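Support case: user asked for a sample of complex input and structure output to validate their parser. Sending the pair below.
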Amino acid sequence: MLLYAGRRLTYGLLVLALVAVLVFLIIRLIPGDVVRLQLADAPGVTQAQIDQRTAELGLDEPILTQFGHFVGGLLHGDLGTSFEDGRPVTTKILERLPATLELGLLAILFGVLLGVPFGMLSAIRHHSITDNVMRFLAVIGMSLPNFWLALLLITFLALWFGWSPPLVYVSPTEDLGQNLVHMLLPAIALGAATMASIARMLRSSLLEVLGSNFIRTIRSRGASERVVVLKHAGRSSMIPVFTVLGLQVGHILGGTVILERIFAIPGMGSLIFEAVGQRDYPVILGCVIFYGAIFILVNVVVDLLYAVIDPRIRYEGATA
Amino acid sequence: MSIAISGTARAARRPKTRSGLVRFATEQPLGAIALVLITLFVVVAVLAPWIAPYDPLAQDRVNILTPPGVGGHPAGTDELGRDVLSRSLYGARTSLLIAVATLALGGLIGLVIGVVSGYFGGTWVDSVLQRIMDALMAIPSIVLLLFVAALLGPSVRNTVIALSLLVIPSINRVARGEMLRIREEPYVEAARSVGCSTPRILVRYGLPNLMAPLFVMGSLLFAVILIAESALSFLGIGTPPPTPSWGRMLSEGRSQLEIAPWMTVVPGLILSVSVLAFNLLGDAMRDFLDPKQRR
Amino acid sequence: MSHTMLRLKRSPGRTVGAAVAAACLALTAACGTGADTSGKGKIVEDAGPPQDGGILHTAATTDAPSLDIHKEASYMTHVAVGTVYSRLVAPKTGQDVEYGSSELEGDLAEKWSKSDDLKTWTFNLRQGVKFHDKPPVDGRELTSADVKCTVDRIKSLPGHQLGLVANVAELETPDPYTVVFTLQSANTAFDQTMANPFMSILPCEGTKGEFDLAEDAIGTGPFMLKSWKRDQERVMEKNPDYFVEGLPHLDGIQTTVLPDAQAQIAALRSGKLDMISSLSTEKRQVDQLLNQIDGLQLRTEKGITQTRVFMNAAEGPFSKLEVRRAVAHAIDKEGMIKALRSGGTLTGPITPTLFGALPQDEVDELLEYDPEKAKELLAEAGYPNGFEADLVATDGYGETILREAQWIQEDLGKIGIKLTIDQQDYATYVSSTWPETKYDIMYGLQTPMLTADEYLTSEYTSTGTRNWSKVDDPELDKMVAAQRVITDEAEREKALQDIERYIMENVSTPLPLYAYDTQTLYSGKVHDYHPHPDYSSRELQNMWMEQE
């Protein structure tokens, strides 16, 4: 188990390094130049001033040298400083990270809290009206783009009920209630697809388990349907749910970029959106590496959780 | 001998078309409805120039932002006086074009990587390819798309390239998984022992077996692409104006949501129904092809 | 545009069941827009004596990149911290003052005077003016030394504001309350220069780097910066020691950064915002809000931001003057304003609100919509059948600019110029395409400038800092240089207008189309809001809110 975890993490680091290389190269190819961008609105800027700023930012060196510096810093946990305001990238990201994590967790929570009962109901009442309604709702959840759902929620809640989300983001440590109210709509908009995926996945895996010999045996011993579903079938059918969660992490992280913008949440999503606009290379790189790290970490955790949930799974020899 | 083997393999995985369709429709009614919707979608997309009441780009400047039914526009007009219905119908064309091109491009690359990787499963080739795929998957799609779109500039072609990056790892995963399974099948072993070359085995036995799971994946990815395209256009980095695309129409109409909801309700509805149809079809096909789900 | 419609409910806060709500979504699709605004949105001018107290909640679509009012050229910085600082003199605003008037009043200066040769300007400062009580300045008194520190700093920085003080040869401070400027050449309106928001007076502690001017702002203005969370909110509180007795009325200003217009509108509706501005586009949306929210006030101001068609004068098909003039006549600007803006005024190179602008009827004629004439000009240029080109535009300015680009695409298509829209992200557009003239034809905005000379020199002279259309006309260069030294006001105005005519007829790039109107919506309890186009927001010192 530990060996497996270690191996997964090592692979994760390798993948992360690949991400860093890919992104570093890609952003250098994007047209537009950060120095000009910073000084663009200032007439009378001389070439000397542009050159000076370019040198300050280390952009006059060959790409390979720049990459060398980048990797060197990375090994010390240093992601460099922002082109925009000169602050350390790590600091900037760590400021923004909590909001994104919170939004993501809330969205997952929303998805799980609704998706699991929906999926179970659907499977138990297989082929009933409830099942069909649930399936239909689930597929609708997958079919509405999250940003579109968010805009509909904002506009029509205000139009019909005179309610709008709070203006200013407050951190949960400052005022948890206020914070949760702010996060409510984006979490719903973001979690809808997760809810749908979980419900669908749980339904089909439960059906599969319920049809298995193992459950037939338990049923034949006279266990109530409730016990069968919750105790015996529920446990093993949760594995696909975790798989879904692992896959959904990507969608959720990506979704935060748009939703943080719409709801004025100061997270990593809005940070990277701004950074792309400003060609703030170190911040873009830093964000992508963090995104990648979160994604990989969550997937490793999900894998390990499999083992906890289903004791039949052992990882001694398994590789990736 | 090899022909006979592949024949049975095909028969096992792919039911004969006609009876297969009928059986599919009876076993998966939702899937059948989805199939009808998708057929409709394709027909509309192909026949848009003949069905649409107006040129989707024509600006009827006397009828700007008119509600549905007014001024001869069945679904109203947008801020430039363009016919919303015609634009929505043509939008299907744009979406179909983008989705098909993306699936073709991303699918092909993903397929090649997946098949090769699966065939060499467990070797360094497999490891290297899969690590690169993991790296691609570890970057959230929108972030990846932000880069690529900013790098290349918005155009239909570039949207396809950006979206392909989304498709490649998924197709790769399915293809590789299937290949790993097929590799161990007796008939492939047999073919190998008879001395068939590697590429020949891949094409001859790998691909036919891959078709079914790929169709399922393709259908689900179609839905993902439709949503991703609209997200890209919503962020202003997808299909450029004035090309009618559902994503663009949503983004154009968002500031008019309160006063001219028809600008977004019509394309939004069509988009959602299409995504729904592809999701349902993908589901139904998976259930249909998976013997464990059959009863 | 007459059609039957279901009127939307006037008061929003009504309980509607979820099912009804769902049905309504479909229903609103069939509803029209209530364009009846008679009596709605009126500004209440006689609300009685000002009351003290209250916090104004307002929103901004983007935040200031930094708070350094000298280094940062973005007007967002001026909007952000304009109320923190004071200038020597400032434009007068108020109910009786015309919007955009150049009439000045003393800000830090009690009085000011100029010598007969217009080369020596003396400003006498108010006594007892205190900086905000924040470290490291800690509420000490402002003196002439701070003015000197500020001007020295401005001269040392690159950028736009350098041009404003380049003419200052010497600055003397004979005593703590007197500042004497000696100019290199005569300037009849140096006090106007000092009223520019760039001329905000900083404490010497700031110019010497004892605190970070990009992150904090300490001045002598009516409001103090309490906190700034970048891209989230700016919180201002009343300066209790403000040098004008009894001002400001508000206890504070809370500005939230909300990029999404729908989110802003929702917040106005729910009462979380008292004021939203820069709704330059959605007239129908504004009408609907006015119908639904009781007492909501609408302030429409003549625009100062110009929309522009930039054409490459050096190469490509648009390097031919006739083609550029054909473009000027081919676009239906009035139709565009009516369909896509809440209002606007056709403009020459100098914005209509500024000194030296061309008379309106002349502008209208020079920009007349005449497709036939455009076709003739195109034929004269050797393109009787038109040609193809790419039209660059950015989504960085919002959806309206893209709509306008499509409008232009359609209009130019009618005379045979087939355009393909090349939509670029703002960063590429502003940092590469525009300054490096990587376009044949481009549509966009020009950040407003504050004087006629600024427009002409920076954009239309061959050595101009913003000559990004590659204009190279020695005759024009001479004319622009000549107007700068004319001291007689009437004579100078005539010279400026001659230059504008010359530009419209012989240069025609960047081709100005119109300055669009801006709209500000604010709640019925907000009074005495008299803005000025200089973006400094100083007028907020006079604003007050009705207390419950």
